[in-house]
Amino acid sequence: MPQPRLTQRAGAAYLSGGALGLWELVFTAVVTFCAYKGLTNYTWLGVGWLLHTCWDVVHHLKGAPIIPALSHSSFGCAICDPVIALWMFRGAPPLPTPRRQAVSPRPTAPAPS
Fold it and tell me: Would you say the pTM of this structure is higher than 0.85?
């Protein structure tokens, strides 16, 4: 079953700044709707992440980043969010686990005679 909490939290990420006034609330409501629909369908979660990407771009262009001390934080978020959206559109398949290389035991030195 899809887990929409992260999508909904991403939608509310800009609420504390309020740089776009009431549009921040409208956007949060739209992304919350996507998260709700995402309870049964990953596609809606992908839509929510793409909407968040657009919102990141708007904030970047307006000069109101998600982290005020980091002027390019919204731009960085806009780069990462489409990757998450694509993953959601694919049904959020499990990520591959890194393989550990087999470690051969160290050869023991012959005991001194």
Answer: no
